[in-house]
Write a structure and sequence with these properties.
Layout (H helix, E strand, L loop, with lengths): L1 H12 L16 E9 L9 E10 L2 E2 L5 E4 L8 H7 L3 H4 L5 H12 L4 E3 L2 H16 L7 E3 H10 L12 H8 L9 H21 L19
Parallel strand pairs: 1-5, 5-6
Antiparallel strand pairs: 1-2, 2-3, 2-4
Helix pairs in contact: 6-8
C-alpha cells in the first residue's frame, strides 16, 4: 500500500512527462536484470563506470537484446576500484556521461521490475542521476536475488545457523556456472540465472540443503 502511494506521488511529481511510461503496467512475465560497476560503495559520492541490463522473458535470458554502456565519470577511478573492476581511466575515455546514458537506459528498462544481487545499491546509484532528470526516484519494482536465496535456504533455519549470502557462494550452491565477476554484463546474467532457478524452486516448494553447523556467525555479505 505504501509503495503504491509513493508511485502515485512520484507520477504526479514527474518533471518530464515523456517518461510517464515508467509508471505503466509491465509486460507480464518480464523483468530486467541490472548491474552497475562503480568507483566505490557510497551512492552519495561514488560514480557509475559501467551498466548492463538484460531482459528476462518467458523463462529465457535474452542476452541478444541486452543494454550495455561504459560511463565516463567526472573523476578518474581510484587504484582501489581498478583492482575490483579493472576499468582504467583510458578504458573509460570512450564512455559517455551518465546524463547521456540514462535516457537510453530508462527507455530500455521501461516499467519492468529490476532484478539483481543487492539491487537496491544499483538503483540508488542510478537514482542520483534519475532525480536530476525526473525529479523522482525510479519507480520500478525490485527483485532481490539474495532475499530469494535466503528464503529457499535459511528461511526456516534455527538460531545460530551459518548464513552465507556471498554471490559466489550462492552461485556455487545453485550449480550456476561462474562467469568472471565484477563485469556488469556477467553479473547481470548470473543474477538472472539465479533468479530463474530460485523462482522454479519456489514454484515447486523445493528448498536448498544447508549445513548442520550451528556454532558460526553469519558470513560477511557482498560479492
Amino acid at each position: 500500500m505504501l509503495q503504491a502511494l509513493r508511485r502515485l506521488f512520484w507520477r504526479a511529481s514527474l518533471a518530464d512527462h515523456a517518461y510517464l511510461f515508467l509508471f505503466d503496467d509491465p509486460p507480464p512475465g518480464e523483468v530486467v536484470s541490472l548491474d552497475c560497476e562503480t568507483t566505490g560503495l557510497d551512492p552519495a559520492t561514488d560514480e557509475i563506470l559501467a551498466i548492463a541490463a538484460v531482459p528476462v522473458a518467458g523463462g529465457r535470458i535474452l542476452t541478444s537484446r541486452r543494454f550495455e554502456a561504459i560511463v565516463k565519470p567526472e573523476a578518474a577511478p581510484t587504484a582501489e576500484s581498478i583492482k575490483v573492476h579493472r576499468l582504467r581511466a583510458r578504458d573509460l575515455e570512450a564512455g559517455r556521461p551518465m546524463r547521456e546514458v540514462l535516457p537510453e537506459l530508462l527507455r530500455f528498462i521501461g516499467p519492468r521490475p529490476l532484478l539483481g544481487y543487492y539491487i537496491d545499491f544499483d538503483v540508488r546509484m542510478i537514482d542520483r542521476y534519475a532525480k536530476e532528470l525526473l525529479q523522482v526516484h525510479l519507480p520500478n519494482p525490485r527483485i532481490e536475488v539474495s532475499a530469494l536465496y535466503y528464503d529457499r535456504k535459511y528461511g526456516k533455519a534455527p538460531p545460530g545457523t551459518t548464513i552465507d549470502l556471498r554471490f559466489a557462494s550462492m552461485l556455487a550452491d545453485l550449480g550456476i556456472p561462474a562467469l568472471e565477476q565484477h563485469i556488469a554484463l556477467n553479473d547481470a546474467v548470473m543474477a538472472a540465472m539465479a533468479w530463474l532457478q530460485l523462482s522454479d524452486m519456489t514454484a515447486r516448494g523445493q528448498r536448498l540443503k544447508r549445513e548442520r553447523r550451528r556454532d558460526a556467525t553469519a558470513a560477511p555479505l557482498g560479492a
